[in-house]
Protein: glucose-6-phosphate dehydrogenase (NADP(+))
Amino acid sequence: MATTLYSTPCRSLATSSSSSSSLQPCPLSSNLAYPQRVTFSQRFLASKVSLKSQPQPYQIPVHTQQPEGTVTAAVTPVENGTSHKQLKADLLSLKSPDESEDGFEKDENESSVSITVVGASGDLAKKKIFPALFALYYEDCLPKHFTIYGYARSKMTDAELRNMVSKTLTCRIDKRENCNEKMDQFLKRCFYHSGQYDSQENFAARDKKLKEHEGGRTSNRLFYLSIPPNIFIDAVKCASLSASSGNGWTRVIVEKPFGRDSESSAALTKSLKQYLTEDQIFRIDHYLGKELVENLSVLRFSNLIFEPLWSRQYIRNVQLIFSEDFGTEGRGGYFDHYGIIRDIMQNHLLQILALFAMETPVSLDAEDIRNEKVKVLRSMRPLRLEDVVIAALFIDNARWDGVPFLMKAGKALHNKRAEIRVQFRHVPGNLYNRNFGTDLDRATNELVIRVQPDEAIYLKINNKVPGLGMKLDRSNLNLHYAARYSKEIPDAYERLLLDAIEGERRLFIRSDELDAAWSLFTPVLKDLEEKKIIPEYYPYGSRGPVGAHYLAARHNVRWGDLGTDVDH
Structure:
């Protein structure tokens, strides 16, 4: 009988020999009258202990496996009535000669995680990365031995970094116990190092500081590149050559944009791979860490009601909508160079589309999921100029042949939202057509997955209004997250940072996936730039360009977000 004795509220740390983590609770066996196998995580010694109730206590040899050999200890058996708490305490008290008094191995056999935020003085680091790391610390999701470092060109002391970071930290709305105490403890683990991004000498000094804090433990190092893309390679080169771990793992998180077309993206990947392997590169798209995006595969593959309907036989069109109610304030230069297609469509919305449309993966393993996403992307037609006011995409495979996937993304619009809308086909020979008149779209079933804000999943169905007559309306079967779940939804960066620390890659973008994504958009982007196509103007705060409606009409689609019905 397998018995697991150690877990945290975040993710199970006590696992079998498999490296995958579990989200299941870790039970404590209630029957201890016969042999047990107790398995600990790498933080503990792996032990096999035989416990039997005996009339009189006596000594039982215990063999404790370690890399260097086998150590024999002695254990006094327990009676049947011994409490779980006492048994756990006794087991955790077992120590080999190389174990310290706190129940862990000595420092040289432990591991540490050092997280270096490159570009620590920038907005992304202040507003997202440091707060996400604190949230993980508050939830006890970070390893025992972790240290956070800020690295940037700005001159700053440790105290000044901590003061800067402290202004952005908050505790969960639903969980504020010991908030100030936790903040103080977290800030004590934050340090700063000033240096140039292209200086191996500065990174070598960084390496020296890292080793001081690692204290002889196995060193695992994560570098988060929160810097402009034109200095990615310089920073990666210096980090790889001068500050890589000598006895653990080294991983690098790279922020978008990953180039601006197929050629520049391929060049960036080639340059990164001069210093890193593909497994060390974590290309982050924070939309993949959002709760409703991660729930896509759960919704589809664990509910029998949806999977049979997830194809051209029942789905008329799919809409991926992104809108913001503010303009390019403070980012005008960036948008002049990259634009909304590169910033939103080619990554955020295309990643969501790939997850939505992929075939069932062999397993939930990262590579199996990413393999299916690549297949979808390679099945899609490259965009043409006539497809762009809003992007219209088609997937040429058996499941989705002929189904338009419409993307709409813009700033300075009438509201802020990101959602997926799945409009189903009309019911053939619908007995109640006369109740809807000539506008059959009023009778269309629609599944809406609202990614942000105010997360929700709802299904629009036709329903009889109570009364003596036969009046129909459209009602929502609604899962409103704020009403259903009291727990605050974690920020996307929390999930992705934790995955990077644990080596979980399924929510990060692989290089061939990136190549396939750019191959769809590069031809139309070149056409737009070479022919100097002027985007259609629209008033600030409006619903967007009129041309969006003509493009939708061409594919016999009505935008779902323009209806008058209530969406929540």
About this structure: The CA atoms of residues 146 and 403 lie 48 Å apart. The chain is about 30% helix and 20% strand. The chain has a mean pLDDT of 77.
